[in-house]
Amino acid sequence: MSALLEMRDIEKIYPGVRALQGVTLEVDRGEVRALLGENGAGKSTLMKILAGAVDKSAGGIRIDGEDVEIRGPRHARELGVAIIYQELSILPHLSVAENIFLGRLPKRRNAPWLVDWRLCHEMSADLLKQVGLAVDPRTPASRLKIAEQQMAEIAKAISEQAKIVIMDEPTTSLTAREVDTLFGTVRNLRRRGVSVIYVSHRLAEVKAVCDRATVLRDGTKIGDVNVATSDARDWVRMMVGRDLNQLFPKTQVAPGPAQISVRNLSSRRLKDISFSAHAGEILGIAGLVGSGRSTLARTLFGDAPSTSGEILMCGEVVKIDTPAVAISHGLALVPEDRKGQGLVLPMNVRENITLASLDAVSEAGQLRIAKERRVALRFVDMLKISTPHIEQKTLNLSGGNQQKVVLAKWLYTDAKVLIIDEPTRGIDVGAKVEIYSFLQRLVEQGKCVIMISSELPELIGMSDRILVMREGRLSGELQRPEFSEERIMAYASGVEH
User: What total number of domains does the chain contain?
Assistant: First the structure.
């Protein structure tokens, strides 16, 4: 195989920050190349340079044997580079077909000023079939689930006849079956000679689908590895510069009294849910996408209505119909979508940390900036939030550090019960360990943590009990000695019913 892509000595310098220094990347034709590294290692910057979204400061790029200067995203697409970002770019008010052929709608031969909708829908249907998405191409994109939007983005990349397809955390919102479909699509692209750059923190996926991996750390290239003949532990050591002897720092804590109890809770999507979660406990909640896990979290937090049932805090029945009421009763929610729901991205770290507790940093109705600064500095130190200063806008932080800011915001409320939905989605291995360690410290202090996750090793590694949801109901409960991925999936898919 010959190198389809060569990026040589790439540098990127922002004011006061060197994001990339002398990075070289070669990708062969028809190769699936993983790009690994912690958040902040430079992966996204390198890929944005290749996709034309960011200008490089120095270095050279060669595609298909020709030196190129990528002048923007459109030029990158013309050169055969397609990128599927973790934050999808689907336009909800357009149909699936219109999203796939946006800016390239096929025209009628005898009337080139008119769109040939029949051809557009036929071509879209064929592309959707290739990625395993069974939807009518005329369907409004707003009706697609996140996983379906992801597959539609891949269909769009295929339609552009891309030579190089960049996938940034492509499976964060996919079910196991959809991940298998995605892997089939990746292998099909490889057979057709298309190169895929696969950016992911999920090392098992890298092992399953990639040929080679390039590891970055602190904006520099650490090395290349052959995926088939190397060990994931070696990749982690290269990424973080140290051994991670214990990924899940779980220790047993004697459970205390029930902090929150739910009796026969129902809503439009939930059906007769009953459980309790205790002080000193991490209660895991598993289930397939659409099982009702996030709906349950939002209902407990007063962000989604219930139709019947009761919620008890410390044994006392409470009516929680708004997030403000939930906070007053000692509940906190770290949502699945940290960027859209957990943070105000244009605001700085200091402002985000105190956002849910403004009364605590105010006197006589006036915000006390000095006190707010002391609070923010304390949590930055406590959670090891990597930021140049507390006035840094949170949109400029890595995913792991953004998640820590969300955690800090709720910890400052001194909540008794922390509900955390997908705690490590899109976060590197090192940051995962730090978040797991902090959750463990919380339960050792007598807090209660309800952890919702699609990553079964995470649930098994950190939970004291696991509840499994299916179609809005609780389908099973497992104690720690009973944990296994097979049993969880059996309950989640209905096999044990």
Answer: 2
Distance from the Cα of residue 35 to its chain's centroid:
16
| Distance from the first to the final alpha carbon of the chain | 50
Query: What CATH number did the domain enclosing 381 receive?
Result: 3.40.50.300
Whole-number Cα distances in Å, 407 to 102, 166, 226: 38, 31, 37
Nearest to 421 by CA among 283, 278, 294, 277: 294
Q: Report the pLDDT value the prediction gives residue 214, as an integer from 0 to 100.
A: 96
CA gyration radius, the chain:
24
Residue 21 tokens read as: 């220094």
Residue 2, Cβ density class (10 Å: 0-12 exposed, 13-18 middle, ≥19 buried): exposed
pLDDT in tens, 331-360: 999 888 788 788 898 999 999 999 988 888
Q: Is 183 found in the same domain as 85?
A: yes
CA separation for the pair 466, 485 (Å, rounded): 11
Give mean pLDDT, residues 184-193.
88
Tokens linked to 144:
């697609």
**CB of 168 within 8 A of CB of 44?**
yes
Q: How confident is the model at residue 425 (pLDDT cuts 50, 70, 90)?
A: confident
Q: In this structure, what token pair is assigned to residue 117?
A: 């909708």
Main-chain phi, psi angles of 277, to 5 degrees: -130, 140
Asked if residue 36 lies in contact with residue 50, where contact means CB atoms within 8 angstroms, the answer is no
Which residue range is the domain that position 23 belongs to?
3-90+144-240
Q: Is residue 346 part of a domain?
A: yes
CB proximity list for 149: less than 8 A, separation 6 or greater: 88, 90, 141
Q: What is the DSSP string of 82-147?
A: EEE-SS----TTSBHHHHHTTT---B-SS-TTSB-HHHHHHHHHHHHHHTT--S-TTSBGGGS-HH
Q: Average pLDDT of the chain?
A: 89
pTM to 2 decimal places? 0.64
Single-letter amino acid code for the residue at 368 = R
Give the DSSP H/E element, type plus range, for residue 45.
Answer: helix 43-50
421: phi then psi, degrees, rounded to nearest 5 = -100, 120
Instruction: Look at residue 98 and tell me whether its pLDDT is greater than 70.
Output: yes
